[in-house]
């Protein structure tokens, strides 16, 4: 199938090219992409791949266009959010924790299917594809049917980031930290993950404090009802829960000091592999430190719940999003880094 795809190759500007998408296998579908979020993981992966040619994108939303022969829970025309890929068979998947799938690395980051076959070609050469089981920086994506979550008539540019970034922030609150009304949550970093966490906490009746150096992001979160500070060095009252989205060792260490006894800190940001923590304080104060991948979410359960909250007006995710044409990827990234955009979403038909 001929498509247009955003091709990345090293530090050179990304370019829209014609590409050939593989035919769907029995358990796969082709989704016509209507919107796709830009996530920090896309940028890190592009850097790590060096000059290797790649089609990235892993927060796709669109309508199902073609079905594999064994797909029976989706129909052509369904609007779906495409979440991360998982095998559905290992112990973690069967236990409702697909983000920790035994095959997560190969399914989401190898650039191919599990059998090493390519899903996308540019010219006559296969390129790095199947990113998070989709590679949705394109006009269409080939993906496992099990990764697709129907979302009805929800606006694609709003719900696309529920495939990863918004899912991670919301799930960290609802599935990992689980604060209750009257608790106080500190969120370090108000990018897509952090801002979604703030909105989710507020929708639960939880007080939210956000530490974010970008003034526009602080103002946005304050407008939602959160207390916003520029850094963790400012006066912050003790908190019952904390979420670090930055991965910075100094932020993690400082957040732990702000927790009340028996408080919990969840980590969603990837930073240095090693750091120094006060283990004695961790133990004596009964603190919990938890890693969190993809919000510990079962996408088929959490994504519909977040869509429901958005429709009810409890989760104004549309306020976090700015849309760009698919070919304007580099401008979208530059705007995000300059603090002009919180969550860029690319729209192929814009």
From TrEMBL:
SUPFAM superfamilies in alphabetical order: GroES-like, NAD(P)-binding Rossmann-fold domains
Gene3D superfamilies: Medium-chain alcohol dehydrogenases, catalytic domain, NAD(P)-binding Rossmann-like Domain
Annotated InterPro entries: ADH-like_C, ADH-like_N, ADH_Zn_CS, ER, GroES-like_sf, NAD(P)-bd_dom_sf
Domain Enoyl reductase (ER): 10-346
PROSITE patterns per UniProt: ADH_ZINC
Protein's UniProt keywords contain Zinc: yes
Keyword Transmembrane helix included in the entry's annotation: no
Record-annotated membrane-spanning stretches: none
Cross-referenced Pfam families: ADH_N, ADH_zinc_N
Source domain of life: Bacteria
Cofactor: Zn(2+)
Record keywords: Metal-binding, Oxidoreductase, Zinc
Annotated GO MF terms: oxidoreductase activity; zinc ion binding
Record-stated family: Belongs to the zinc-containing alcohol dehydrogenase family.
Name this protein carries in UniProt: Aryl-alcohol dehydrogenase
The species this protein was found in: Streptomyces mangrovisoli
Organism placement in taxonomy: Bacteria, Bacillati, Actinomycetota, Actinomycetes, Kitasatosporales
């Amino acid at each position: 199938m001929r498509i247009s795809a955003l091709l990345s190759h090293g530090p050179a500007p990304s370019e829209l090219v014609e590409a050939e998408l593989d035919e769907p296998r029995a358990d796969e579908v082709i989704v016509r992409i209507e919107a796709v979020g830009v996530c920090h993981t896309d940028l890190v992966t592009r850097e790590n791949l060096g000059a290797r040619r790649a089609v990235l994108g892993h927060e796709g939303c669109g309508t199902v266009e073609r079905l594999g022969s064994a797909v029976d829970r989706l129909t052509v025309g369904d609007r779906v959010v495409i979440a991360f890929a998982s095998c559905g068979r290992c112990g973690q998947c069967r236990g409702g924790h697909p983000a920790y799938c035994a095959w997560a690395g190969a399914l989401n980051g190898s650039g191919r299917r599990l059998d090493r076959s390519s899903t996308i070609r540019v010219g006559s050469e296969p390129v790095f594809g199947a990113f998070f089981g989709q590679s949705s920086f394109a006009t269409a994506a080939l993906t496992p049917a099990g990764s697709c979550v129907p979302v009805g008539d929800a606006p694609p540019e709003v719900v696309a980031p529920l495939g990863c970034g918004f899912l991670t922030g919301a799930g960290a609150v609802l599935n990992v930290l689980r604060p209750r009304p009257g608790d106080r949550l500190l969120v370090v970093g108000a990018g897509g993950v952090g801002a979604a966490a703030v909105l989710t906490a507020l929708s639960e009746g939880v007080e939210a404090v956000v530490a974010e150096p970008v003034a526009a992001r602080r103002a946005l979160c304050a407008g939602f009802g959160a207390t916003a500070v520029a850094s963790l060095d400012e006066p912050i009252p003790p908190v019952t829960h904390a979420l670090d989205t930055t991965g910075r060792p100094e932020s993690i260490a400082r957040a732990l000091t702000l927790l009340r006894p028996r408080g919990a800190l969840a980590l969603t940001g990837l930073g240095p592999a090693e750091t120094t923590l006060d283990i004695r304080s961790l133990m004596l104060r009964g603190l919990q430190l938890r890693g969190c991948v993809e919000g510990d979410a079962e996408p088929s359960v959490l994504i519909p719940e977040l869509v429901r909250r958005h429709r009810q007006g409890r989760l104004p995710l549309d306020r976090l999003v700015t849309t760009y044409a698919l070919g304007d990827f580099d401008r979208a990234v530059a705007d995000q880094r300059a603090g002009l955009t919180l969550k860029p979403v690319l729209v192929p038909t814009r």
